[in-house]
């Protein structure tokens, strides 16, 4: 199987854009997806999941120009896991979607 993720959701914050020393752009943002269902008691439930999204290069440039908090987007990419040591020396773990394609769905 292939590592492929597709999400359609709303952007939860204005994207954080960084320009690296090489001039390459990096974008970080969060996307909320919602699932609605009826539970065992017949109650309607809406569950929101937040996804950390990262994009590089041209995709990050598109995000910088056109994506803002509240916009609906579709992204496709791969799921990645990484770790780093924070400023206190504690190991932190991150799961994120590294985007290779984005569609702007909002008007």
Low-confidence stretches: none
Oligomer: single chain
Q: Which radius of gyration do the C-alpha atoms yield?
A: 16 Å
**What's the CATH topology name?**
OB fold (Dihydrolipoamide Acetyltransferase, E2P)
Tally of helical runs:
1
Could you say which overall geometry the principal axes of the C-alpha atoms support? globular
Name of the CATH homologous superfamily: Nucleic acid-binding proteins
Strand order of the largest sheet: 1-3-4-6-5
Query: Could you say what the CATH architecture is?
Result: Beta Barrel
Mean of all residue-level pLDDT scores: 95
Secondary structure blueprint with pairings:
Elements: E1 5-11, E2 16-19, E3 25-38, E4 44-56, H1 57-66, E5 72-85, E6 91-104
Parallel strand pairs: 4-6
Antiparallel strand pairs: 1-3, 1-5, 2-3, 3-4, 5-6
Mind explaining what this structure looks like?
- The relative contact order is 0.26.
- This protein has a single domain, classed as Beta Barrel (OB fold (Dihydrolipoamide Acetyltransferase, E2P)), CATH 2.40.50.140.
- It is built from 1 helix and 6 strands.
- The longest helix is centred in the middle third of the chain and has 10 residues.
- It has 107 residues and is mainly beta.
- A hairpin with a 5-residue loop joins strand 5 and strand 6.
- It has a 5-stranded mixed barrel.
In short:
The chain has 107 residues and is mainly beta.
Essential attributes:
single chain; 107 residues; mainly beta; OB fold (Dihydrolipoamide Acetyltransferase, E2P); 5-stranded mixed beta barrel; globular
